[in-house]
Request: fold
Amino acid sequence: YFITYQATDAAGNPSVVVRRRIYIYTLCEDGEKVCPDETCSTGLLCPSLAEEEDEVVNTLPTINLIGSEEVSVEQGEMYIKCSEGAPLQAVCDRGVTATDSEDGSLTSRVLACSP
Reply:
């Protein structure tokens, strides 16, 4: 996933587009691997591969921005993650929420990386 940022000054001049890449991944215990169904193996065996069941459709996770899709930042100012309780008018990144039909909330597993 990507989040794209762009600012426009009072004269209507757009900035260069900046993107943030979001990766969602599964963490497994040491020594275990991520199975094709994105569950963790047990003893390096993927239970889903051992069972013959009807194919289950796994939906894609959904990511939603917290706050506005567009943020104006004065040239030379830093754009950082908002501190807890930051006022709504603060110029900072409020982050995202992530959910999945099968796994529920994935917000704690969202990684934000510069492209």
Q: What stands out?
A: The radius of gyration is 19 Å.
